[in-house]
Amino acid sequence: MSSANTYTRNMPNYDVHVTCSECSQTHFVSVRLDLDEDGLDRTNLADYFANRPKPSQIAFMQTNKYRCPHTKQLYSAADLSGAILFAQT
Ligand SMILES: [Zn+2]
Hints:
The chain has 89 residues and is an alpha+beta fold.
């Protein structure tokens, strides 16, 4: 007898990367979003949250500062137009 049970979730996870003002590259800021939508890879967060409520993780991220791994300087994630969703596979 075979089981059709599956333990994989279909909800995609997205990593949030923020454009760094110090080196102009994007860095992962340790924020992951469970969004019940496919096809959001490389979507701009400012666009995505333009007419949706922002999750608390994102509000917190905007108040936080992150250290650039290249320049070791702190950069801000306040501007969501520089934040991008990357789909996890
Ligand atoms: Zn950087």
